Amino acid sequence: MNSQKIITIIAGVIGVIAMFFLIRIIGVGDEAIKAGESSGMVNTFMYIAYAVLALILVLVVLFTLKNVFTNAATLKSTLMGVGAFLVVALISYFMASGIETPMKDGEVLSASGSKLVGAGLNMFYILAVIAIGSMLFSGIKKMIK
Fold this sequence. Notes:
single chain; mainly alpha; transmembrane; transmembrane helix
């Protein structure tokens, strides 16, 4: 049995279990859940969902890292992408100005918090321009051919 069949079987089993839990929650009804009569059941299902989510995230990260480290071309491509992202993040951070800013609720946003917010906005703008530029470039390149 290859790994693809095993993963398909595991996904099917998780899907059947999820359908069972969904039917149990729907069977209880909205009113009982709102009234708190079955909050124990819902909380239990939430913890199960969190555990399944954590398991899936761990498996995704492990298999992704395994794939990246077993293929040299993939590793090089991944490191170039991560490096480019870090360069954009550093440029965005150093372009941002950090000034204390009063907020609507009377609190004051610290200079470092303001700098991080500005860096996030700058990074969004830079990445948006890069994405739009690459779409335009590929579209124009296809039109020329």
